Amino acid sequence: VFCCFCCSLLDDIINTGQQETQQEEEFLSLVETVVLTIFLSIIIIMTVFGNLLVMVALCKDRHLRKKKTNYFIVSLAFADLLVALVVMPFAAIELTTGRWRYGEIFCLVRTSLDVLLTTASILHLCCIALDRYYAICCQPLVYRHKMTPVRVAVMLSGCWLIPTFISFLPIMQSWNAIGIEDIIEERRALTGGSNDTSCVFLVNRPYALICSAVAFYVPLALMVLAYQRIYVTAMTHVRQIETLQRAGSAPVTSTAPMITVRSSTSSDPLEHYRLRTTTGSSSSEQAPIANSRMRVETKAAKTLAVIMGCFCLCWAPFFITNVVDPFIHYSVPWQLWTAWLWLGYINSGLNPFLYAFLNRAFRRAFLVILCCGDERYARQGSYSYGHTPRACSAASVNGTSMALR
Question: pLDDT-derived band of residue 97, with 50, 70 and 90 as boundaries?
Fold first, then answer.
């Protein structure tokens, strides 16, 4: 009897300990779910808010609408806004609940939209880089010839049409699953047994290579080349300014030709970067203007480098994993996949804040909107676009708005 009592007491203690451990695990799981839900909700809300702010700013500010680059920016903001509204909420629900509740067809649609919109966002960044290259590195006539309204429209169309060929077309036809059907079925069995409780998306090697090249590696190469040329051009101009400053300290005759740099306050792109010969003026008077202009150009190049760095930081881990995973028998843990994917989503929320903090014209427009049209910011905005003799008063290079102060 005593032995039975001891065994019963021991069982009660063990069961009580197991119940307490299970309750603690459930509590920790609940806390983790709540914290994760709050974190993902903040990312989604900030992405929606930032991109809506960019779109509203471009709609309300007629000066921003004059710049060709800003057509790419508003289209980029629209793509990022769709990522936040269409893709991220379903990914957040699946991540926090651990289940997919919307069926097989919508799983394919959601995945296709994910690939389409994130690729469109990346291609827009590439087009902005190319536009900056032509604006800063080429002569004004070349820029005006290259970036015509028709060409801008073609580039914008390409940003939306090209991703279709690596998203809806192959995914809805299941081309990405050719040769790996057994692996996909095994993964579904591990995550719930059917598409009603899981949304498994694996890709074969050809699709992984083609999709990653189109969506990331080719745009990355073009962006690196464009920004490298922008930096080289900026440094070349710096050396030219130093030469002007040294020449300004030497005595000059009234007949000696010298190089001066016109102010960039004119709204006509043909007036920017125009060099001409003059007589009877001192190069030392023009050097401060040119030096101020060069500081603006250098800051623009630094801004592009910041955007480039954020782009690589956000998307490089995902696309490197996307290429490597099919060659290591799909052994990358799903937790790592999820982390890299959400890091890429964060890039959609990061772009508008880069413009807000680093672009004076956008920052001023945002302040006008957030302060409900405060006259102080409206007056500052109108003054900066006036044709005043102050050097570098316009935030534009070749008619675009990436020269920052």
Answer: confident
Residue-wise pLDDT for 195-254, tens only, equals: 566 788 999 999 999 999 999 999 999 999 988 888 788 778 777 877 887 776 554 444
Q: How far apart are CA 365 and CA 325, in angstroms?
A: 44
Q: How far apart are CA 302 and CA 353, in angstroms?
A: 16
Cβ partners under 8 Å of residue 91, min gap 6 = 114, 341, 342, 345
In a 3-state reduction of DSSP, which class is residue 261? strand
Q: Residue 303 is encoded by which pair of tokens? A: 């801004």
Cα–Cα dist 264/391, whole Å? 7
Q: Which of 405, 363, 348, 393 is nearest to 61 (CA)?
A: 363
Interior CA angle at 296 toward 290 and 298, to 5°? 100
Q: What does the pLDDT look like over 339-373, one tens digit per residue?
A: 999 999 999 999 888 766 677 888 888 888 888 66
Confidence check: pLDDT of 165 > 60: yes
359, amino acid identity:
N
Both ends of the chain: CA-CA distance in Å? 88
Cα Rg of the chain (Å, integer): 28
| Contacts (Cβ under 8 Å, ≥6 apart) of 235 | none
CA distance 133 to 125: 12
Measured between alpha carbons, how far is residue 116 from residues 89, 171, 222 in Å? 16, 11, 20
* pTM for the predicted model, two decimal places: 0.77
Provide the H-helix boundaries in 216-282: 218-248
Please, are residues 90 and 149 in contact by the beta-carbon 8 Å criterion? no
Tokens of 54: 């960019």
- Residue with the two structure tokens 């914008």: 156
| Contacts for 259 with CB less than 8 Å, ≥ 6 apart | 244, 275, 276, 277, 283
Residue pair 396/264 in contact by the 8 Å Cβ criterion: yes
Structure token digits, residue 45:
């809300």
> What pLDDT was estimated at residue 134?
87
Tokens 């316009």 map to which residue? 394
The per-residue pLDDT for 327 is: 94
User: Cβ atoms within 10 A of the Cβ of 380, count?
Assistant: 14
The sign of the CA dihedral 280, 283, 288, 289 is: positive
